Structures are given as C-alpha cells and as structure tokens.
C-alpha cells in the first residue's frame, strides 16, 4: 500500500483529532495540519491530498490551495450553502473533489434505503427527518439530515429547498402535503443520531442510524481521500467510492 501524505484543515477540532488517529491507523501520514488563523496554501504542495473538516468560510481558500497544488480535496465541513456548492463544482473542473455530509458506510447505505422507500411509498406517506447531535454543533439541520432529505426529495422528484419544513413552532396549521419535515435535537456528547420516518395511513416505517463514535467519519474520510488520489479531476461522492 502506498503511504498517502495528508494535509488536514481544522486539525485541532474534534474531527481533526479523529482524522489524525485514523490516518495513522490506516498506515498513512499527516504531513501538515492547519487550523483557524493558519494558511494551508503554501504548504499544500507537500501533500498528496487535503481533507477539510473546518468551517464553511474556509472552503474557498482550501479549494484554491488544492487547485494551485494540483491535488485532490475531501470536504466534510457541513453547513454549506448554494455559494459553496458552486465553488465545489468549479474546483472539480481542475482537481478531484469529494464532498459528503457523512462519511460513514451505514449512512451512505441508509440514503439508498431512504431513496428506495420514498420512491415506493406513495405521497400519502409523509416524510420526517429527525436528528440529534452533541451540544457544540453549530449548524442545523445536520449535513447528514439534509443528505437524507435530499435522497428522499430526489426519489419523489421534488426540490428539497422549496419543500423543506424545519423548526416548527406555534400555530403552524396542518402539515403541508408533499413537504419533508426536519427536527433537530442538541445535547450531551452524541456523535450523530438520524431517523427518517415514513408516516403513512395507520402505519409507520422508520430507518435509523446511530454513530457511536466520530472515528467512523474519520475512517471513511481517510479511505475516501486515499481512493481519490490519482483520480482525474471531477466531483465524486461516497457512492462512487463504494461502487454503489
Ligand atoms: P470543531 O469545532 O471541533 O472543529 C473545527 C475546527 O476547524 C476548529 O479547530 C476550528 O478552529 C477550525 N477552523 C475554523 N475555521 C477555520 C479556518 N478558516 N481554517 C482552518 N481551520 C478552521 O468541529 P468538528 O466537530 O470537528 O466538525 C468540523 C466540521 O465537520 C463541522 O462542519 C461538522 O459538522 C463536520 N462534520 C462532518 C462529518 C461528516 O461525516 N461529513 C462528521 C462530523 C463532523
């Protein structure tokens, strides 16, 4: 196995620390770690791949560094908006880019099952996404909740942004038909709990995933990064890596 040199962005954070452990565990090496206030730019050329689990504001500079160095980049940062997705697509014209709101095998498969269920169960089955994370998480709903909601929306051939209902409060009126609901819980040290509930007439189907430790995301991201080295420029997903 070729040892891959990793540049880790956000390395002092919870995921950064998990990534460092996962890189060593997989027999690779972390050549550079940068955190807030640092600049990966001039150092990126020493790495084979960049892995970014930091903050949406850092994305533009990190993609720029990957482009200048001509190396792939894996992006795990969540809370990305339209503008960031345009940046990802643009960078993918020059280097391999793999972005995912969740790097675990279980959630990648769960998204498949959600897609299948949403396509097969008719519109009288309402879809709700419930998630819980630790008290320090800064964005909501989670990137994984959005990923699961997007899988359901695509299967129903609807646009998620205009059919998303989150944070219900007060006199909301009856549930709007065809929407996908999101509910968020925060507390303690929960690494990630997600359920997608299909609520039909007098029956309910729930698909759930529990992340017991953030090492599952770190291991997935390290595997994805090693896989991405040597690939041509383009936008890749976890499904591509897993051959799904
Ligand atoms: P964290 O707050 O513990 O760590 C983030 C780190 O990034 C901090 O050390 C912070 O100082 C650093 N940072 C902030 N701005 C920066 C910048 N401009 N340049 C470099 N570093 C910067 O958060 P975390 O729990 O490690 O999560 C990090 C991100 O990864 C979040 O967006 C989180 O939602 C996401 N996440 C994704 C997955 C996944 O599988 N895709 C899993 C877990 C967490």
Topology record:
Blueprint: E1 5-9, H1 14-25, E2 29-34, E3 49-52, H2 59-69, E4 73-75, H3 82-91, E5 96-99, H4 105-120, E6 126-133, H5 143-156, H6 160-163, E7 164-166, E8 180-186, E9 192-200, E10 203-211, H7 215-228, E11 234-236, H8 238-242
Helix pairs in contact: 1-7, 2-3, 4-5
Bound molecules: nicotinamide-adenine-dinucleotide.
Protein model, in words:
- The chain is α/β, with parallel strands linked by helices.
- The protein folds into 2 domains: 5-99 and 215-242, Rossmann fold; 105-211, Dihydrodipicolinate Reductase, domain 2 (2-Layer Sandwich).
- Helices cover 35% and strands 25% of the residues.
- The strands form 2 sheets. The chain has a 6-stranded parallel sheet, sandwiched between helices.
- The longest helix is centred in the middle third of the chain and has 16 residues, at 105-120.
- The radius of gyration is 19 Å and the shape is elongated.
- It starts with a strand and ends with a helix.
- The mean pLDDT is 96.
- Residues 9-10, 12-16, 34-36, 53-55, 57-58, 76-79, 100-103, 143, 214, 217 line the site of nicotinamide-adenine-dinucleotide.
Short overview:
The chain has 244 residues and is an alpha/beta fold. 35% of the residues lie in helices and 25% in strands. Bound molecules: nicotinamide-adenine-dinucleotide (NAD).
How many domains make up the 3D coordinates?
2
Our count of helices gives 8
CATH architecture heading of the largest domain: 3-Layer(aba) Sandwich
In this entry the ligands are:
nicotinamide-adenine-dinucleotide
Overall number of strands: 11
* Structural class designation: alpha/beta
Q: Calculate Rg over CA atoms.
A: 19 Å
Anisotropy-based shape = elongated
Helix proportion of residues, in percent? 25-40%
Arithmetic mean of pLDDT: 96
N→C terminal distance: 24 Å
The CATH class assignment of the largest domain is Alpha Beta
Main β sheet profile? 6 strands, parallel
Strand fraction equals 25-35%
In CATH terms, what is the fold-level topology of the largest domain?
A: Rossmann fold
- Read across the widest sheet, the strand sequence of neighbours is 2-1-3-4-5-11
CATH level 4 superfamily of the largest domain? NAD(P)-binding Rossmann-like Domain
Order of helices and strands: EHEEHEHEHEHHEEEEHEH
Low-confidence stretches: none
